[in-house]
Amino acid sequence: MFMNFRRIRKCQCVQLLTTGLLLCMVMVCWEELDHHVVSHMRSYTYRYLVNSYDFLNSSFAVTSNHPQRKDGSVSADGGLASYPYLIDHPRKCVDRRSRSSILLLLFVKSSPENFERRQAIRDTWGNESFVWSELGANVRVLFALGVHPDAERRPSVQRALFQEDRVYGDLIQQNFLDTFHNLTAKLVLQFHWGHKYCPHARFLMSADDDIFVHMPNLVKYLQQQSGAKDLWVGHVHRGAPPVRRKESKYHVPEELYPWPSYPDYTAGAGYVVSADVATKIYHATLLLNSSMYIDDVFMGICAKAMGISPQEHVYFSGEAKAPYHPCIYEHMITSHGHATDVRSLWQVATHPTVYRHSRGFIGNLYCKAVKVMLLCLPHYQSTYSCIGAFT
Protein backbone atom coordinates (compact mmCIF):
# COMPACT_ATOMS: atom_id res chain seq x y z
CA MET A 1 0.00 0.00 0.00
CA PHE A 2 1.49 3.26 -1.08
CA MET A 3 1.08 6.45 0.88
CA ASN A 4 0.50 9.62 -1.04
CA PHE A 5 2.73 12.10 0.75
CA ARG A 6 1.25 14.95 -1.26
CA ARG A 7 -2.02 14.47 0.58
CA ILE A 8 -0.46 14.67 3.98
CA ARG A 9 -0.70 18.11 5.43
CA LYS A 10 2.40 19.89 6.55
CA CYS A 11 1.36 19.84 10.19
CA GLN A 12 0.95 16.07 10.03
CA CYS A 13 4.50 15.79 8.66
CA VAL A 14 5.78 17.88 11.52
CA GLN A 15 3.89 15.69 14.01
CA LEU A 16 5.27 12.51 12.49
CA LEU A 17 8.82 13.83 12.46
CA THR A 18 8.54 15.12 16.02
CA THR A 19 7.14 11.82 17.27
CA GLY A 20 9.89 9.90 15.51
CA LEU A 21 12.55 12.20 16.91
CA LEU A 22 11.19 11.83 20.44
CA LEU A 23 11.10 8.05 20.13
CA CYS A 24 14.70 8.04 18.92
CA MET A 25 15.77 10.24 21.84
CA VAL A 26 13.97 8.00 24.32
CA MET A 27 15.67 4.92 22.85
CA VAL A 28 19.11 6.54 22.97
CA CYS A 29 18.67 8.05 26.44
CA TRP A 30 16.58 5.30 28.00
CA GLU A 31 19.26 4.23 30.46
CA GLU A 32 19.63 7.76 31.82
CA LEU A 33 15.85 8.24 31.93
CA ASP A 34 15.43 4.93 33.71
CA HIS A 35 18.08 5.90 36.28
CA HIS A 36 17.02 9.50 36.93
CA VAL A 37 13.24 9.37 36.37
CA VAL A 38 11.65 5.93 36.12
CA SER A 39 13.55 4.31 39.01
CA HIS A 40 12.83 7.29 41.28
CA MET A 41 9.12 7.22 40.40
CA ARG A 42 9.01 3.49 41.11
CA SER A 43 10.95 3.99 44.32
CA TYR A 44 8.76 6.80 45.62
CA THR A 45 5.62 4.82 44.78
CA TYR A 46 6.95 1.88 46.77
CA ARG A 47 8.13 4.10 49.62
CA TYR A 48 4.89 6.00 50.13
CA LEU A 49 2.24 3.46 49.05
CA VAL A 50 3.73 0.19 50.28
CA ASN A 51 6.49 1.10 52.73
CA SER A 52 6.36 -2.03 54.87
CA TYR A 53 9.94 -3.26 54.55
CA ASP A 54 8.87 -6.38 56.42
CA PHE A 55 11.36 -8.30 54.31
CA LEU A 56 14.35 -6.72 56.04
CA ASN A 57 14.38 -8.86 59.16
CA SER A 58 14.07 -12.11 57.22
CA SER A 59 16.14 -11.29 54.14
CA PHE A 60 19.03 -9.68 56.02
CA ALA A 61 18.98 -11.94 59.04
CA VAL A 62 22.34 -13.52 59.78
CA THR A 63 22.63 -16.88 58.04
CA SER A 64 25.50 -18.90 56.64
CA ASN A 65 24.02 -18.56 53.14
CA HIS A 66 24.80 -14.85 52.75
CA PRO A 67 28.22 -14.06 51.27
CA GLN A 68 30.20 -11.15 52.62
CA ARG A 69 31.38 -8.18 50.63
CA LYS A 70 34.50 -8.19 48.54
CA ASP A 71 37.70 -8.61 50.56
CA GLY A 72 35.64 -9.35 53.68
CA SER A 73 35.17 -12.57 55.57
CA VAL A 74 32.26 -14.51 56.98
CA SER A 75 32.06 -15.80 60.51
CA ALA A 76 30.59 -19.19 61.36
CA ASP A 77 27.09 -17.77 61.84
CA GLY A 78 27.14 -15.70 58.66
CA GLY A 79 27.67 -12.36 60.40
CA LEU A 80 30.50 -9.91 59.97
CA ALA A 81 33.75 -11.41 61.19
CA SER A 82 35.48 -9.64 64.03
CA TYR A 83 38.57 -8.16 62.45
CA PRO A 84 41.64 -7.90 64.70
CA TYR A 85 42.74 -4.45 65.80
CA LEU A 86 46.07 -3.21 64.50
CA ILE A 87 45.83 0.13 66.33
CA ASP A 88 43.53 0.62 69.29
CA HIS A 89 42.99 2.99 72.22
CA PRO A 90 40.56 1.33 74.63
CA ARG A 91 41.13 4.04 77.27
CA LYS A 92 40.40 6.95 74.95
CA CYS A 93 37.04 7.55 76.62
CA VAL A 94 38.26 7.29 80.19
CA ASP A 95 37.09 10.67 81.43
CA ARG A 96 40.07 12.79 82.38
CA ARG A 97 37.75 15.70 83.22
CA SER A 98 35.61 14.64 86.15
CA ARG A 99 33.47 17.75 85.87
CA SER A 100 31.95 16.69 82.57
CA SER A 101 30.78 13.50 80.94
CA ILE A 102 31.54 12.91 77.28
CA LEU A 103 29.08 14.81 75.11
CA LEU A 104 30.14 13.34 71.76
CA LEU A 105 32.16 10.43 70.43
CA LEU A 106 33.08 11.47 66.89
CA PHE A 107 34.43 8.96 64.37
CA VAL A 108 36.02 10.24 61.18
CA LYS A 109 36.11 7.65 58.41
CA SER A 110 39.53 8.08 56.84
CA SER A 111 41.71 6.27 54.31
CA PRO A 112 45.21 5.23 55.43
CA GLU A 113 47.04 7.59 53.07
CA ASN A 114 44.94 10.69 53.93
CA PHE A 115 47.34 12.08 56.54
CA GLU A 116 46.90 15.71 55.42
CA ARG A 117 43.13 15.56 55.81
CA ARG A 118 43.45 14.11 59.31
CA GLN A 119 45.98 16.76 60.27
CA ALA A 120 43.74 19.56 59.01
CA ILE A 121 40.88 18.18 61.12
CA ARG A 122 43.12 17.97 64.20
CA ASP A 123 44.14 21.58 63.68
CA THR A 124 40.57 22.86 63.28
CA TRP A 125 37.17 21.43 64.14
CA GLY A 126 38.51 18.12 65.50
CA ASN A 127 40.75 19.72 68.13
CA GLU A 128 39.55 18.26 71.44
CA SER A 129 41.40 20.85 73.52
CA PHE A 130 39.77 23.73 71.64
CA VAL A 131 36.32 22.22 72.07
CA TRP A 132 36.89 21.84 75.81
CA SER A 133 38.52 25.21 76.48
CA GLU A 134 36.38 27.36 74.17
CA LEU A 135 33.07 25.52 74.10
CA GLY A 136 33.13 23.72 77.46
CA ALA A 137 32.27 20.40 75.83
CA ASN A 138 33.95 17.03 76.32
CA VAL A 139 34.41 15.46 72.88
CA ARG A 140 36.48 12.49 71.70
CA VAL A 141 37.64 12.40 68.08
CA LEU A 142 38.91 9.18 66.50
CA PHE A 143 39.87 8.23 62.95
CA ALA A 144 38.54 4.85 61.77
CA LEU A 145 40.68 3.03 59.21
CA GLY A 146 41.35 -0.28 57.51
CA VAL A 147 44.64 -1.29 55.87
CA HIS A 148 45.93 0.04 52.57
CA PRO A 149 44.49 -2.05 49.71
CA ASP A 150 47.76 -2.03 47.71
CA ALA A 151 49.90 -4.90 49.00
CA GLU A 152 53.14 -3.29 47.78
CA ARG A 153 52.50 0.07 49.43
CA ARG A 154 50.91 -1.35 52.55
CA PRO A 155 54.08 -1.85 54.66
CA SER A 156 55.33 1.72 54.19
CA VAL A 157 51.87 3.22 54.73
CA GLN A 158 51.41 1.09 57.84
CA ARG A 159 54.73 2.25 59.31
CA ALA A 160 53.64 5.86 58.71
CA LEU A 161 50.33 5.16 60.48
CA PHE A 162 52.10 3.69 63.51
CA GLN A 163 54.30 6.79 63.67
CA GLU A 164 51.29 9.11 63.29
CA ASP A 165 49.45 7.32 66.08
CA ARG A 166 52.45 7.51 68.39
CA VAL A 167 52.28 11.29 68.04
CA TYR A 168 48.52 11.84 68.21
CA GLY A 169 46.99 8.66 69.69
CA ASP A 170 43.71 8.99 67.79
CA LEU A 171 43.71 6.19 65.19
CA ILE A 172 41.52 3.08 65.40
CA GLN A 173 42.45 0.51 62.77
CA GLN A 174 41.22 -2.99 62.01
CA ASN A 175 42.72 -5.54 59.63
CA PHE A 176 40.36 -5.23 56.65
CA LEU A 177 41.14 -3.71 53.27
CA ASP A 178 40.20 -0.04 53.25
CA THR A 179 38.08 -0.05 50.09
CA PHE A 180 34.67 1.23 49.06
CA HIS A 181 33.20 -2.25 49.29
CA ASN A 182 34.33 -2.51 52.93
CA LEU A 183 32.73 0.71 54.15
CA THR A 184 30.18 -1.30 56.09
CA ALA A 185 33.05 -2.94 57.99
CA LYS A 186 34.14 0.56 58.97
CA LEU A 187 30.62 1.41 60.12
CA VAL A 188 30.49 -1.74 62.24
CA LEU A 189 33.92 -0.86 63.68
CA GLN A 190 32.58 2.49 64.91
CA PHE A 191 29.47 1.15 66.62
CA HIS A 192 31.22 -1.87 68.12
CA TRP A 193 34.12 0.18 69.47
CA GLY A 194 31.75 2.81 70.86
CA HIS A 195 29.59 0.18 72.54
CA LYS A 196 32.58 -1.51 74.14
CA TYR A 197 34.76 1.40 75.17
CA CYS A 198 32.58 4.54 75.21
CA PRO A 199 28.97 3.60 76.05
CA HIS A 200 28.60 6.63 78.34
CA ALA A 201 29.00 9.15 75.49
CA ARG A 202 25.69 10.95 75.07
CA PHE A 203 25.98 11.12 71.27
CA LEU A 204 27.92 9.35 68.54
CA MET A 205 28.77 10.97 65.22
CA SER A 206 30.12 9.44 62.01
CA ALA A 207 31.73 11.70 59.40
CA ASP A 208 33.90 11.50 56.29
CA ASP A 209 37.41 12.94 56.32
CA ASP A 210 36.46 15.52 53.68
CA ILE A 211 33.67 16.94 55.83
CA PHE A 212 33.68 20.28 57.58
CA VAL A 213 31.97 20.36 60.97
CA HIS A 214 31.04 23.70 62.47
CA MET A 215 31.84 22.49 65.97
CA PRO A 216 30.44 25.52 67.90
CA ASN A 217 27.07 25.11 66.18
CA LEU A 218 27.12 21.32 66.58
CA VAL A 219 27.93 21.51 70.30
CA LYS A 220 25.18 24.08 70.83
CA TYR A 221 22.69 21.88 69.00
CA LEU A 222 23.62 18.73 70.96
CA GLN A 223 23.47 20.55 74.29
CA GLN A 224 19.91 21.55 73.39
CA GLN A 225 19.10 17.85 72.82
CA SER A 226 19.96 16.87 76.39
CA GLY A 227 18.19 13.63 77.27
CA ALA A 228 17.09 13.02 73.68
CA LYS A 229 16.01 9.49 72.78
CA ASP A 230 15.73 7.82 69.37
CA LEU A 231 17.71 10.69 67.81
CA TRP A 232 19.21 10.02 64.40
CA VAL A 233 19.75 13.28 62.59
CA GLY A 234 21.38 14.26 59.31
CA HIS A 235 20.63 14.85 55.63
CA VAL A 236 17.85 12.33 54.97
CA HIS A 237 17.37 10.37 51.76
CA ARG A 238 13.75 9.22 51.47
CA GLY A 239 12.60 6.65 48.96
CA ALA A 240 16.01 6.42 47.28
CA PRO A 241 16.21 3.70 44.61
CA PRO A 242 19.11 1.25 44.26
CA VAL A 243 21.50 2.11 41.43
CA ARG A 244 21.37 -0.62 38.81
CA ARG A 245 23.93 0.82 36.38
CA LYS A 246 26.92 -1.49 36.48
CA GLU A 247 29.42 1.26 35.72
CA SER A 248 28.48 3.18 38.89
CA LYS A 249 30.45 2.54 42.07
CA TYR A 250 27.09 2.60 43.88
CA HIS A 251 25.79 -0.26 41.74
CA VAL A 252 23.77 -2.77 43.75
CA PRO A 253 22.72 -5.95 41.90
CA GLU A 254 19.20 -7.26 42.24
CA GLU A 255 20.53 -10.45 43.78
CA LEU A 256 21.76 -8.39 46.73
CA TYR A 257 18.80 -6.02 47.01
CA PRO A 258 15.86 -6.82 44.67
CA TRP A 259 13.42 -4.21 46.01
CA PRO A 260 12.80 -0.85 44.27
CA SER A 261 13.43 1.40 47.28
CA TYR A 262 15.84 1.63 50.20
CA PRO A 263 14.61 2.38 53.70
CA ASP A 264 15.12 6.01 54.69
CA TYR A 265 18.70 6.79 55.66
CA THR A 266 20.98 9.75 56.29
CA ALA A 267 23.88 10.70 54.03
CA GLY A 268 27.01 8.95 55.25
CA ALA A 269 28.99 12.20 54.99
CA GLY A 270 27.93 13.13 58.50
CA TYR A 271 25.18 12.17 60.93
CA VAL A 272 24.59 12.02 64.69
CA VAL A 273 22.80 9.44 66.84
CA SER A 274 21.92 9.49 70.52
CA ALA A 275 23.43 6.91 72.86
CA ASP A 276 20.35 4.68 72.86
CA VAL A 277 20.29 4.61 69.06
CA ALA A 278 23.99 3.74 68.97
CA THR A 279 23.25 0.77 71.22
CA LYS A 280 20.36 -0.35 69.01
CA ILE A 281 22.48 -0.13 65.87
CA TYR A 282 25.20 -2.15 67.60
CA HIS A 283 22.70 -4.91 68.35
CA ALA A 284 21.32 -4.74 64.80
CA THR A 285 24.78 -5.37 63.35
CA LEU A 286 24.86 -8.59 65.37
CA LEU A 287 21.51 -9.70 63.96
CA LEU A 288 21.64 -8.56 60.34
CA ASN A 289 23.85 -9.72 57.51
CA SER A 290 26.19 -6.97 56.41
CA SER A 291 26.59 -7.90 52.76
CA MET A 292 25.15 -4.47 51.81
CA TYR A 293 28.41 -2.66 51.12
CA ILE A 294 26.96 0.86 50.93
CA ASP A 295 27.39 1.83 54.55
CA ASP A 296 24.74 4.54 54.87
CA VAL A 297 22.15 2.22 53.29
CA PHE A 298 23.17 -0.56 55.68
CA MET A 299 22.72 1.94 58.50
CA GLY A 300 19.19 2.55 57.21
CA ILE A 301 18.51 -1.19 57.12
CA CYS A 302 19.72 -1.59 60.70
CA ALA A 303 17.69 1.39 61.89
CA LYS A 304 14.52 0.19 60.15
CA ALA A 305 14.90 -3.24 61.74
CA MET A 306 15.18 -1.57 65.16
CA GLY A 307 12.24 0.78 64.63
CA ILE A 308 14.32 3.97 64.27
CA SER A 309 13.56 6.72 61.75
CA PRO A 310 15.99 9.45 60.62
CA GLN A 311 15.24 13.08 61.28
CA GLU A 312 16.06 15.80 58.78
CA HIS A 313 18.23 18.71 59.85
CA VAL A 314 18.43 21.30 57.10
CA TYR A 315 22.01 22.28 57.98
CA PHE A 316 23.50 18.80 57.74
CA SER A 317 25.04 18.55 54.30
CA GLY A 318 24.33 16.00 51.60
CA GLU A 319 26.84 15.34 48.86
CA ALA A 320 28.03 18.88 48.11
CA LYS A 321 29.65 21.94 49.65
CA ALA A 322 27.58 24.55 51.39
CA PRO A 323 27.62 28.04 49.89
CA TYR A 324 30.29 30.25 51.41
CA HIS A 325 28.59 33.16 53.16
CA PRO A 326 28.46 34.46 56.77
CA CYS A 327 24.67 34.09 56.82
CA ILE A 328 25.13 30.38 56.10
CA TYR A 329 27.96 29.92 58.63
CA GLU A 330 25.72 31.11 61.44
CA HIS A 331 23.61 27.94 61.16
CA MET A 332 25.94 25.48 59.42
CA ILE A 333 26.48 22.08 61.05
CA THR A 334 28.29 20.13 58.31
CA SER A 335 29.45 20.74 54.76
CA HIS A 336 30.80 18.05 52.45
CA GLY A 337 33.66 18.04 49.94
CA HIS A 338 36.40 19.90 51.84
CA ALA A 339 39.56 17.97 51.06
CA THR A 340 41.85 21.02 50.89
CA ASP A 341 40.14 24.11 52.36
CA VAL A 342 39.26 23.02 55.90
CA ARG A 343 41.68 25.44 57.57
CA SER A 344 40.58 28.51 55.62
CA LEU A 345 36.90 27.70 56.06
CA TRP A 346 37.39 27.17 59.79
CA GLN A 347 38.89 30.64 60.16
CA VAL A 348 36.08 32.47 58.39
CA ALA A 349 33.14 30.29 59.52
CA THR A 350 33.95 30.54 63.23
CA HIS A 351 35.06 34.18 63.27
CA PRO A 352 33.12 36.25 65.85
CA THR A 353 32.00 38.76 63.20
CA VAL A 354 29.90 36.07 61.49
CA TYR A 355 27.01 36.60 63.91
CA ARG A 356 26.89 40.36 63.36
CA HIS A 357 25.29 39.98 59.93
CA SER A 358 21.95 38.77 61.28
CA ARG A 359 21.63 41.10 64.27
CA GLY A 360 18.59 43.32 64.39
CA PHE A 361 15.58 43.44 62.11
CA ILE A 362 17.52 44.64 59.05
CA GLY A 363 20.29 42.09 59.54
CA ASN A 364 17.81 39.27 59.94
CA LEU A 365 15.95 40.35 56.81
CA TYR A 366 19.23 40.61 54.89
CA CYS A 367 20.33 37.10 55.86
CA LYS A 368 16.94 35.63 55.04
CA ALA A 369 17.11 37.15 51.55
CA VAL A 370 20.66 35.86 51.07
CA LYS A 371 19.70 32.35 52.17
CA VAL A 372 16.69 32.31 49.83
CA MET A 373 18.89 33.31 46.89
CA LEU A 374 21.54 30.71 47.77
CA LEU A 375 19.67 27.72 49.14
CA CYS A 376 16.69 27.77 46.81
CA LEU A 377 18.88 27.37 43.74
CA PRO A 378 18.92 23.79 42.37
CA HIS A 379 22.73 23.78 42.58
CA TYR A 380 22.64 23.63 46.37
CA GLN A 381 19.76 21.18 46.83
CA SER A 382 22.19 18.34 47.56
CA THR A 383 23.68 20.43 50.37
CA TYR A 384 20.97 22.27 52.31
CA SER A 385 17.26 22.30 51.62
CA CYS A 386 15.52 25.49 50.58
CA ILE A 387 13.58 25.15 53.83
CA GLY A 388 16.78 26.17 55.60
CA ALA A 389 16.32 29.70 54.31
CA PHE A 390 13.24 30.09 56.49
CA THR A 391 14.51 28.53 59.72
TrEMBL record:
Pathway: Protein modification; protein glycosylation. The keyword Transmembrane applies. It is found in: Golgi apparatus membrane. GO terms for molecular function: lactosylceramide 1,3-N-acetyl-beta-D-glucosaminyltransferase activity. It comes from the Eukaryota. One of its GO terms (biological process) is protein O-linked glycosylation. One of its GO terms (cellular component) is Golgi membrane. Keywords: Glycoprotein, Glycosyltransferase, Golgi apparatus, Membrane, Signal-anchor, Transferase, Transmembrane, Transmembrane helix. InterPro entries: Glyco_trans_31 (IPR002659). Gene3D superfamilies: 3.90.550.50. Its EC number is 2.4.1.-. Pfam families: Galactosyl_T. It catalyses: a neolactoside nLc4Cer(d18:1(4E)) + UDP-N-acetyl-alpha-D-glucosamine = a neolactoside IV(3)-beta-GlcNAc-nLc4Cer(d18:1(4E)) + UDP + H(+); a beta-D-Gal-(1->4)-beta-D-Glc-(1<->1)-Cer(d18:1(4E)) + UDP-N-acetyl-alpha-D-glucosamine = a beta-D-GlcNAc-(1->3)-beta-D-Gal-(1->4)-beta-D-Glc-(1<->1)-Cer(d18:1(4E)) + UDP + H(+). Belongs to the glycosyltransferase 31 family. This is Hexosyltransferase.
